[in-house]
Please model this.
Amino acid sequence: MLFSKFKLFGLLALSYSLISCGQPQAAPNATSNATPNATSSGSSSAIAQASATPQATQTPVAEKTPEPQATANGHSLIGSFKGEMESLGIKIALPTYVPQGFWIASVKTEPCRQGDTVDANGVCRFGPTYTVIYRNPQDHCFTVEAAGGGLGGPSSQYTRAVRSKIFDKVDVMIGTGNDKPITDEIANTPQELRTDFAGKSPLYSVRTINSQAANRINAAIICSDTAHMTPNEFIKIVESLDWLALSTSSVSSASSQDEAESFHKTFEEINKQSCDDRKSVTEKGKVYGACTANAGGRNQFRFISASEHIAEAPDW
Model:
């Protein structure tokens, strides 16, 4: 009986061993090795493709354009240039409509020279001036400019009068010649365009520019020599011209300057008047004097000047 139990146990062990040896051993290895390797390879390839795509289409930072703003207020493009332009002390005219894709590529300003006579509007013979260059990724450019004076009136081959938000009449001009009207056909064909000078003092204008004109303004700006803008699109820009809102500090500064100039002018006018009555009072060793003049009505007097000095000691 004991032998039978040992024999039975041995047979069972032998059967289990045979069953284990009969199982295929390659399948688990294929599953655990080949499949993860294939997955890992595929993931690496996908990552490489995903990272390569943005790099291939990435726009250089220097050429990067702002988000499309065809319907936005073009004044928002002025950005960090605003303070520089406000420092000129004149009204800044800029378009509120700017075609999609254009941004401000350059701003050039020049104040009045030292010694120049400046009028009440803050304008001298040739200044202050500013030139704002707008540019798009295709190197198409146009400018908005202002100058104090010293500019001649250009003639044109074709012209059309339009009205802007701030100017009653602005002539849009093409070429030089006999001032024929801009027809609808011409208005839909890209042209080299400009406006006549608008305003009185300063004088404002808008124009498309090529590489030569851009180089005179800013040698770092590249502009195409191909006519790119139709008169219809150009007219939208001109019609949208509006005054740039001044910052709070600029308004306060301008207001303070105006008040100071007004006070100084009034003081000079008063100081030139003669005294109608002089009065003096001595009190505690000091003499107080006042000069008054008739202000134009009965018993209405204004002070012209007042003084104070120490009373002279009597001779003993």
